Amino acid sequence: MKPEDYNPSNYLPQGYYPWPDKINPNVEQMGIDYRNWIDTDYVYLSENIRERYKSMNLHKCSARMYPYASYERVTPMHRYVVFHTIFDDQLEYSTEEEVSRYCDRLVAIFRGDSLTPEDPGYFIQAAKIRDEFGAFMPDEWMKRLADTFYTVTRYGAQEEATYKATQTVPSLALFKVLREYSIVIFPYFYLVDAEFHTFLTEEVERHPVIQRVRSLWSRIIAWQNDIQGLKKELSKDTEVMNIVIVLQRNYNLSLEDAMTEAMKIHDDDLAELVALQEDLPDFGKYQEQVKQLFLGWGSLIQGLNTFYLIDTNRYDPECFAWPDRETEDTSL
């Protein structure tokens, strides 16, 4: 199989996952909102890059991932999806030190720091996310979100930057650990709490099953992302932290054989997640809440896959918002 013949829908078609495939009824207004945000607080990006983000239909991504949320609750969740997407994309060529600097400032804002006149619109969006969630979620929940954002950025995006800079790949064993974090998806796990008006106690949150579910959930989304975005990543040599590329380089596999192995890893993780959902331990009075959260976690996986397949040009190599290294507009 040649890279140009690769089609992700041959591996992850719509409806591949065993959860509902829905879309938030506020999707139209969400589209108006996010294009407004791009033109208001992301003006440090070049006009070309802003237009590319508008064409990606990121409101449909948020609407599919959080189909059960009210407009009030989905707004900061949607704002976070746009914020995270731009953050992740525009770090493509960043050094480990740059990632660390952006992370520290963002975490400080999430934890309550006031904005300064020097803070660009990107950080204004972070403060709005914090304040909008603060209207209906407890302070301890926001602390979890901030701490988790730090964890995935420090041990994911920051660690990944070194491999991108040197164009090397880790072993498959190490990659599996790093990719779980570098997909920077753990915070989305907690956004489902906000979707369902839920806040798990520390005792439930720390339960080994919940921790294992979070790990599997993040990995599945990472493998899904790697499979859906592979054509974009094969079009340039800058992206090496993709499970298919890691398998190819470590084991000298053809693209087709690497895809077979990648799908096996994906499907094994998916089978374990579904098995845990079907045989939950006793969470006492939180049992129904945990079941509801599983619905949200699963719907997010399903919705994200549908978004990739039918709603966006995001991973078209010609449409992706590559950072423009020839200008200063990529400064976060």
UniProtKB/TrEMBL annotation:
<dbReference type="Pfam" id="PF19086">
    <property type="entry name" value="Terpene_syn_C_2"/>
</dbReference>
<dbReference type="GO" id="GO:0046872">
    <property type="term" value="F:metal ion binding"/>
</dbReference>
<dbReference type="InterPro" id="IPR034686">
    <property type="entry name" value="Terpene_cyclase-like_2"/>
</dbReference>
<keyword id="KW-0479">Metal-binding</keyword>
<dbReference type="InterPro" id="IPR008949">
    <property type="entry name" value="Isoprenoid_synthase_dom_sf"/>
</dbReference>
<protein>
    <recommendedName>
        <fullName>Terpene synthase</fullName>
        <ecNumber>4.2.3.-</ecNumber>
    </recommendedName>
</protein>
<dbReference type="GO" id="GO:0010333">
    <property type="term" value="F:terpene synthase activity"/>
</dbReference>
<keyword id="KW-0460">Magnesium</keyword>
<comment type="similarity">
    <text>Belongs to the terpene synthase family.</text>
</comment>
<keyword id="KW-0456">Lyase</keyword>
